[in-house]
Design a protein that fits this description.
The protein is an alpha/beta fold and 406 residues long. Helix content is 40%, strand content 13%. It is built from 17 helices and twelve strands. The strands form three sheets. It has a seven-stranded mixed beta sheet with strand order 2-8-7-6-5-3-4, sandwiched between helices. A three-stranded antiparallel beta sheet has the order 9-10-12. It has a two-stranded parallel sheet with strand order 1-11. β6, α9 and β7 form a beta-alpha-beta unit. α4 runs parallel beside α11, α12 packs parallel to α16 and α13 packs across α16. The longest helix has 21 residues.
Length: 406
């Protein structure tokens, strides 16, 4: 029986297929050390951390130890650490917990949907919202923030590292603007945690959100820095958990896992891991850019460096539909993304890239490569062995390349 082309296609689930994961900004796997730290709190120390008996005390000890680690991670007092379910809850808490009708809220057009959609929601409740557009390289200009401030400005929210481009925002300068104006300042640091050093005291923010699953901790757990005296109202009411700032029985195992992941993240910022990942990202990027009709979103075309998270690059491929390339690479064993995982399947192009001034065609032709901190040279080598061929094959059937676009 003759072999057909269909017979030659390898299933993406075939164990013989090399698999390389380059979508770390969507989520990350648990590290073995994190699993090991969590394990006793699933089986042995299963108590409710609010109970006063031995089982409860064991659970409370795990939560308290994790809080100490997160306080070191943020550079704050342990009492200023609030555990929650993740970045979305943290972002929502800042917006809904501080703003009231008549207030003015400043944020940016490139925020995660957890902030953008919350902003759209409060705008319908009598709160005036200003969205600041980025420069074409993806940076927010602090001067634009300053120009938007008015007497009624109560909250400014700016992400630290963009989830799609990796571009790092000038939050310290924006923090000074917030302090001068008397506004509260919130930072979504979900994509920055574990990738770049930060210090909430130096930044001068009042609220700071992170999410566990972006930094090798479990899904469904996160933390916030809430500066003492910040009058933020809890989204959840009920018991007196988290000093009455977030009701609900603590996810003890998840919190312990987040604490361990934060400890490992601090180590990786000092032991050369982040520099190694940055070098891998740069090599991947440079080799991909050898293909004609490619470029990087979030890089100054004049060659001036733009600060980015070490693991992230966002590349456009002219005459290629990004979604088709994601599928083609997945069939070859390489997992990448067309943008934020929260918008997978969306028909509209990335709001981040559109805000940066890309047209819809180029925005749809852009892919995000985001490396795990466990990425290797072999991972990059394999990706580079399949990306060029996948791009060429898709371009060969592109209406533009084929000359059939009427």
């Amino acid at each position: 029986m003759p072999v057909t082309l269909l017979d030659m296609v390898v299933s993406p689930t075939d164990p013989r297929l090399t698999r390389v994961y380059m979508d770390a900004n969507a989520t990350t796997p648990l590290l073995p050390e994190v699993i090991e730290a969590m394990h006793p709190y699933w089986m042995e120390h299963f108590g409710n951390a609010s109970s006063i008996h031995l089982h409860g005390q064991q659970a409370r000890r795990g939560v308290d130890q994790a809080r100490e680690i997160l306080a070191e991670f943020f550079n704050c007092h342990p009492a200023e650490v609030v555990f929650n379910s993740g970045g979305t809850e943290g972002d929502n808490t800042a917006v809904f917990g501080l703003l009231r009708p008549g207030d003015h809220f400043i944020t940016t057009a490139i925020e995660h949907s957890a902030v953008l959609h919350a902003a759209q929601n409060v705008a319908q409740r009598g709160i005036d919202v200003t969205f600041i557009a980025p420069r074409p390289i993806g940076l927010i200009d602090p001067a634009d923030i300053r120009a938007a401030v008015r007497p009624g400005t109560r909250l400014i929210s700016v992400m630290l590292a963009n989830n799609e481009t990796g571009v790092i925002q000038p939050v310290e300068e924006i923090g000074r603007i917030a302090a001068e104006s008397g506004a509260f300042f919130h930072i979504d640091a979900v994509q920055a945690a574990g990738k770049i050093p930060f210090d909430v005291r130096r930044i001068g923010c009042h609220l700071f959100s992170i999410s566990g699953h972006k930094m090798h901790a479990p899904k469904g757990v996160g933390a916030m820095f809430v500066r003492r005296g910040t009058p933020v109202e809890s989204l959840l009411v009920g018991g007196s958990h988290e000093r009455r700032r977030r009701a609900g029985t603590e996810n003890v195992a998840g919190i312990v896992g987040l604490g361990k992941a934060a400890e490992l993240a601090m180590n990786s910022l000092e032991d050369g891991t982040i520099e190694r990942v940055s070098a891998l990202r740069d090599r991947l990027e440079q080799e991909i850019l050898r293909l004609p009709g490619t470029g990087v979103n979030g890089v100054d075309p004049g060659g001036k460096p733009v600060p980015r998270a070490a693991n992230t690059t966002n590349v456009w491929f002219d005459h290629v539909e990004g979604e088709a390339l994601v599928i083609a690479l997945d069939l070859k064993g390489v997992a990448v993304s067309g943008g934020s995982a929260c918008h997978s399947g969306a028909t509209e192009p990335s709001h981040v890239l559109m805000a940066m001034g890309l047209d819809k065609t180029r925005a749809r032709a852009s892919l995000r490569f985001s490396l795990l901190k466990t990425a290797t040279d072999a991972d990059v080598d394999y990706a580079l062995s399949v990306v060029p061929d996948a791009v060429r094959r898709l371009r060969a059937v592109s209406p533009v390349e084929a000359g059939t676009l009427g």
